[in-house]
Design a protein that fits this description.
Oligomer: single chain
Radius of gyration: 60 Å
Shape: rod-shaped
Low-confidence stretches: none
Helix content: over 70%
Number of helices: 3
Mean pLDDT: 77
Distance between the termini: 206 Å
Number of strands: 0
Order of helices and strands: HHH
Length: 145
Amino acid sequence: MSDFTPSNRVSSEPRRPRRILPWILLLAVAIGAVLWASNRIGYDNSQEAVVRPKAELSAAAEIADKTAREAVANLQQMIQELRAEQQRVAEQISGLQRQLSAEQGGRKLLSEQVGGLSARVDSLRGSNAAAPPNPQQPAKKGREQ
């Protein structure tokens, strides 16, 4: 038989790889612990960083909300004022239309009256031209004496 047996083979291998394995595991655990700790520290700081901007954002949102409410209130007031002004202007226009209509009626009446007078004048001229001239009246005797 040969000297090479499985039990011999195991014992003949160098021990060095077995000594490196615990060091690799220890190094991996150490790196994991450092990463875990740094992640927790970053996580704690990031929560504070998140909370602070949220508070700042909340204050900014309140200011923006207040500003928006004021702007809306101003716009509503302006709309009410514009509607009141629109109503006033509509009433003025309606009054002017009534006045214009009345004036047009007056002008129409005057125009009809002028037309009637013109027709009378024309008729008088026509009758005056057709009539013979008036003979001269004799002088009164009472005056000559």
